[in-house]
Hints:
Two copies of one chain form a homodimer.
Chain A: H1 11-22, E1 28-35, E2 45-46, H2 50-59, H3 64-72, H4 78-86, E3 92-95, E4 101-102, E5 109-114, H5 115-120, H6 122-146, E6 150-153, H7 162-174, E7 179-180, H8 183-189, H9 199-203, H10 208-219, E8 223-226, H11 232-248, E9 255-260, H12 265-278, E10 285-288, H13 294-302, E11 309-312, H14 314-317, E12 327-334, E13 337-338, E14 353-359, E15 365-372, E16 380-381, E17 384-388, E18 391-392, H15 399-411, E19 429-431, H16 433-444
Amino acid sequence: MSNASALLTDLYELTMARAYHDLGMRDIAVFELFVRRLPPERRFLITAGLSQVLEYLESLHFTSADLQYLEGLGLFPSTFIDYLATLRFTGTVHAMSEGTPYFAQEPILRITAPILEAQLVESRIINLMHFQSMIASKAARCVSAARGTRLLDFGMRRAHGAEAAVFAARAAYLAGFDGTATVEAGRQFAIPVAGTMAHSFIQAHDSEEAALRRFVSATGQPTTVLIDTYDAERGARRVVALARELKAAGSPGQIHAVRIDSGDLVERSHRVRHILDAGDCPEIEITLSGGLDELQIAALLEAKAPVAGFGVGTRLDCSEDVPSLDMVYKLEEYAGKPRRKRSLGKETWPGAKQIFRERDAGGVDARDTIALADETAPGTPLLHEVMRDGRRVAPLPSLAESRDHCRVSVMRLPAALHELSGAYDPYPVTVSAQVHVLADRMDQAGE
Amino acid sequence: MSNASALLTDLYELTMARAYHDLGMRDIAVFELFVRRLPPERRFLITAGLSQVLEYLESLHFTSADLQYLEGLGLFPSTFIDYLATLRFTGTVHAMSEGTPYFAQEPILRITAPILEAQLVESRIINLMHFQSMIASKAARCVSAARGTRLLDFGMRRAHGAEAAVFAARAAYLAGFDGTATVEAGRQFAIPVAGTMAHSFIQAHDSEEAALRRFVSATGQPTTVLIDTYDAERGARRVVALARELKAAGSPGQIHAVRIDSGDLVERSHRVRHILDAGDCPEIEITLSGGLDELQIAALLEAKAPVAGFGVGTRLDCSEDVPSLDMVYKLEEYAGKPRRKRSLGKETWPGAKQIFRERDAGGVDARDTIALADETAPGTPLLHEVMRDGRRVAPLPSLAESRDHCRVSVMRLPAALHELSGAYDPYPVTVSAQVHVLADRMDQAGE
C-alpha cells in the first residue's frame, strides 16, 4: 500500500466529487480544520502533521490502477473517471506552524480551492493532522512532567500500525522528546534512535550474569542493560560486579545505564541506586520504562526517583487517555458566500478565519481571538500561507526548527496550562464581533 | 515509506541481533504472542492480522538504503551489516486462524526460528497483530449489539494513520461488519464500500432543497441523503416532497435512505420515520451515525429506533474504550530449553504451547486448556502450522472465509460472552498440569 494513494479517502468524498463535477460546481470553497472541543484531559493542543499534508497535496493524483478500481465499482460514469485522471490539487493552504499550541474552535489549517479538490482531500488531511496533533499534545504533557529528564518513545509495537509508529515518533520528537526506538522514524526524520536489550536476551542465556557480560562485550560501546528479568536488585549487584571487573581490566564506562521495566519503580530505583552507589558505580544511570505516562513520570520525579531517562511507549503512541480528538474539516465559504452548519451540537462559525494571539507585558500568552481572515485584531496572526496554486510558497521549517518553535511557544503559555491536573482557568479564546455578526445574519437569513 | 521496511522495528531488536550474531548464538528460539490480561471492557478477543504477518515474514529483507542508514548510525560493525544484507526469515509459524476468539495468556502465534530472526521480527509482528486484533474485538461487540442491522466502518479520518484506517476496515469486516467507507481498504481487500454525502455538499448550495434535488439527479442511482445539516425533520419533509416528485416523474427509488448524524438519535429517528411514513415513503430507510459505539447501538435498538444501518467511526477505528491491548511476544524456549520471565507482575508460562478448546454437548465452547505443544489435552487444538522454513504451508483462507469462521466461532461462545456489560462468569481457561510442573521446576532451579 502506498501512503500517498488517492484512494485513502472516504467513498463519499468521491460521490460528492462526482456530483460537483456533473453539476458544474467549480467555484472556490474554503474549508477549515479545527477541534470542536478540548478533551478535559488536555489544556492545550499542539499542531503537527503539516509537512505530511503538503506532501500529500503536492503528490495527489489517481493512478491507472486507482481509476480501474473505481470504474469497476460501477458507481461512476467514465466522464468522471477521465476527469479524475487529470486531477491535481491546485489550491491554497494557510496553516499554523507545526509545534504551535492551539485551542478549541481555532482553525489550524485552511484550504481554499475549487470545491471538488477541497472536498476530496478531507479524509486524508484529517487522518494526517489528527493523529500527529494528538500525539504531540500528549508528548507535550510528558515533556512538562519530565522537567528536563530524557524522554524516549518506545511505542512502536502497540502504535496503531506502521504509519502511526513512525508519525508518533515524529510528533513526540517535535514536542520535545529526545529520541525514539523506532528505526524507520529515525531514518525518515533524522530523529536520534536509542535502544539496547529486551528480557529475551537475558532469558536466552542460562544465567543472567553470563547474559550481561556477553551483551556488554558484544556491544563494544557504552550501553544500557536491563536488570529486572528475574530480580532487579540481584541484577543491579551483578552489574556492579561486572562494572568493577571491566574497570579492573581497563575498560571502564561500558555500562552506561541500567533499565528497570517492572514493579514499583520508585522503590526499585531507590534500591538500585543505593546498590550502584555502594558498589562504587555512581556513574551508572537508571532509566525507567513500563506502562509510563505523564502522570507517572510526574509522580516518580515527585518521589525523587533517581532517574536519568524515561521510556514512554503504549500510552504515548496510542494517546491512551485521549485516543481521538474531535477534529473536523468544515466548509466555511463557497462561491464567495459564507456557509454555516447548524446540526444540533455541531454548529460552526462561518467564513474564512484567522487566529490572533496576544501576549501580556511579561511575554506570556494572554488571549486568542478567532476573527475573520480579512479582519485585523490585536496580537499576532497564527495562520500563514504555506501553499499557493498547489505549490509550497517556501520550504517548511525543518523538524528541528519546528521542535524549537514548539518549545518556545509552549513556554509562553500561562503556567497553569503546564500543570497536568487540578482546577485551572482555561486559556481565553474570544470570537470576534464580526464573526458573531456574520453568524447571526446567516441564522436570520434561514437555512 | 514502505510498510514492509525492515526498519519497522525497535532499535533494540537490531542491537540484540548484533549481539546474537557476534556471539554465535544461532540456536532455535520459540517466541509466543499473547495478551497478558483481558481488558475489563472485553469478554473475549478475536485474532486478526495473520495474513499481514506472513506477508511481512516472507518479504523481510534489508535494502541497500536500509543498510546504509544503519551503517551511518555508527553502532554496528560492517560484518553485521553484511550479514543483514543476506538475512531472510527461515522459521516456522504456528497460529490460530484469523477470526478465532481467544483469551488472556493464550498464544495466538508461535514463531520457531534462529533466535536472531525470531527476535528481529518482534516489533512489527506485535504492531500488526495487536492493532487488527484490537479492532476485530471491538467490532465483534458492535456486531453482537447490532443483531443483524447493517454496520459500516466510517472511521478513516480519525484512525491513527493510513495503515490503521485500512487495517481497521479489514478487521471490522472480518468480525462481521458489512462494509467500509475507506476506498483503499475496499480495493486492497475487496471489502464492499459505501458512502454518499457529507454536510458540506448541502452547505455548498443556497438551499437544502436544491442540494438534495441536485445530488439525487447527479448520482443517478439509489442513494442515501443526509438530512440534518440544518433541521432533521425539515430535511425529512423535503425528502418526502422530492421522492413524490421523482415518483410522479417516473423515477421512483432514487432515494434509498436518509442519514441522521447528530442530536438525540432515538427521538429524531422516530420523528423522521413518522414523517417518511406519513408522506407515503415507507421504503426509505433510516441510517444513523455520529459518535456511535456498541453501547449506543444496543441502546438505540433497545429503544426501537427505526434504523436500517449504522455508521461506526472514531470509536471503532481508535478502539476508543480500549486503545491498546497488553499484547506481548515472549521467549518460551531457546536451544531446546524452556525459558521463563519472572519480572514482577509480568511472569510468563514457559515452553512452546498449544491451546485446546472443548465444546459441551450442546455445541457451546466450554473450556480452554493451555498445554505444552507436545501434550494432548481434551478438545480441538487451535494453533496450526501456517509457515515452514519461511514459506507458507498452504494459502490462508480468504478474508470472506475468515469472516465466516469468525461468525461461526463467536456464535459458539457461551451466551454471557455476547452480553456487552454486567456481571458474568469469565470463560474458563486452565493451564495444564504439565505447564505448571515445568514452571515450578524452573523456579526451583533458580534464575
